[in-house]
Amino acid sequence: MSSLPSQQAGIGSHVWFVVAMGIAAMAGYGWGSMGLDVPADAERAAGKPTKVRERPPEMRVEGPATARDVVRSVMDGSLDDRQHWRHVRSFTEEEVKEAIASLDRRYQWSSRTRDLAEMLFYRWGELAPVAANETAKSMFPEKFSRCREAVIAAWINQGGGVAAWSAVEGDLGMWDCTQSVSGEVAEMLVASLSDRDDLAAFKEVLKLDDDNCEVADLLCRARAGKAARTPESRAAFLAAADLHPRAFVRYSCARDELLKAWSELEPEAAEAASLIWEKERDVAQAEEDAREEAEWEKEQAAGKKESTGDDP
Asked: How far apart are CA 250 and CA 12, in angstroms?
C-alpha cells in the first residue's frame, strides 16, 4: 500500500488536467484524430481501437542527473517550478518508476508531492498506459485519483481513448451519490472531442464498447444546447446521433436533450417536433426490441443444437 494518501478527483479542477489536455490538443494528439472518414457502422463492426500515437522523445535538459535527483531537487525547492515538467517529460519508463518509488518512500504528502506525482503518472501514461493505470489504481484505490486521471488523460491524448475506456468501464463503486470512474472518464472523452463537429464526434463514440450508452448520453447533453440554435445545426446534430444503433440514444438522449434547449428558443416549434418524435420513438424502440428478441431466440436455438449434437 502506498504511503501517499488517496487523492480526490475533480475533472478540470486542477492545473495538470487542463494543461495536459491543452498541450495535447495543440500538438495534434487525440483519440479521435485518425480514421474519421470510415463509416460508423463499419467502425463499430470492426471493433478495432484507434492506434495509439507515441510521444516523440524529448531532449534532455541540463540539471539533476538522475530521476531520484530530480525528485530531490523538486522536493527541496532547488529546481525552478517551471523546469519540473521539462525534466519529467524526458524520463524513460524506468526513470518514471524510479522517481515514483523514491517519492512514495521518502516524502510526506504535500501540494508539491501531489503535483510531481501527477506529472510522473502523466509521463508514464504516455509511455506505458496499461501499466501506469494499474499502478495508479493500486496506489490510490479510492475514487478516481488525480494520478490515475493524469494517466487516462495521457492515454486519450495519444489516440488511446478506446483502450482507456475499456480499462475503466468495468470499475465498480460510486461516491457522492452520482460519481463513478466511468463517469469521470466519459467526461474526459467528451471533452477531448470538443474541437470536432457532431458527425466526427459521434463516429468516435461508436468505436467504444459502451453498452450502457454512458458516453453517448453525455455527448448528447454536452452538444444539444449549441445544436438547438439553428435549423442547420439541429439537422446536423440529429443526423450524427442517428448513426447510433440504439433508439435510446437517438431519442431519449439526442432528441430529448435537443428539445430542452430548443423549447427555450422556439417553444411552439419544439412542441410540434416533440409530438412527431414521440411517435417515431415508439416505432423505433419496438423495432429494436423485436430485433433483440429474434437474436436471443436464434442464440437459444443454436445453443440447444450444440448441446444435443445436432447439425446446424
From this structure: 28
Buried b (16+ CB within 10 A) or exposed e, 213-248: bbbbbbbbebbbeebbeeeeebeebbebbbbbebbb
Q: Is pLDDT at 118 greater than 70 in this prediction?
A: yes
The mean of the pLDDT values for the chain is: 82
Best CA proximity match to 182, nearest among 194, 193, 173, 191: 173
Dihedral angle over CA of 257, 261, 263, 269, nearest 10: -80
H or E element, residue 268: helix 267-308
Rounded to whole angstroms, what are the CA distances from 74 to 63, 88, 107, 191, 241?
A: 11, 11, 11, 31, 48
Q: Report yes or no: 249 and 266 within 8 Å, Cβ to Cβ.
A: no
CA separation for the pair 241, 251 (Å, rounded): 9
Residue type, 189: L
Q: What is the mean pLDDT of residues 281-294?
A: 93
Instruction: Tell me the pLDDT tens digit for each residue of 77-95.
Output: 888 888 899 889 999 999 9
Task: For residue 63, give Cα distances in angstroms to 79, 80, 90, 121.
Answer: 8, 10, 12, 21
Q: What are the sequence ranges of the domains in the chain?
A: 1-197, 211-312
